[in-house]
Amino acid sequence: MQRRRRINPKEDAKFYVTAGRDKAGLDIQYISAFKGRGIFATTPFEKGEFLLEYRGELINKQECEKRQRLYHSSLKVFMFEFRFNGKLWCVDAAKEDGSLGRLVNDDHINPNTKMKYFSVQGKPHLCLFAIRDISPGEEITYNYGDSDWPWRSKDLDEEMPQKSPETESPPSTKEVVEQLSSMHDLQKKTSEKIQTSPVLDVLTVVGK
Ligand SMILES: C[S@@+](CC[C@H](N)C(=O)[O-])C[C@H]1O[C@@H](n2cnc3c(N)ncnc32)[C@H](O)[C@@H]1O
Question: What interface predicted TM-score (ipTM) does this complex get?
Answer without folding.
Answer: 0.99
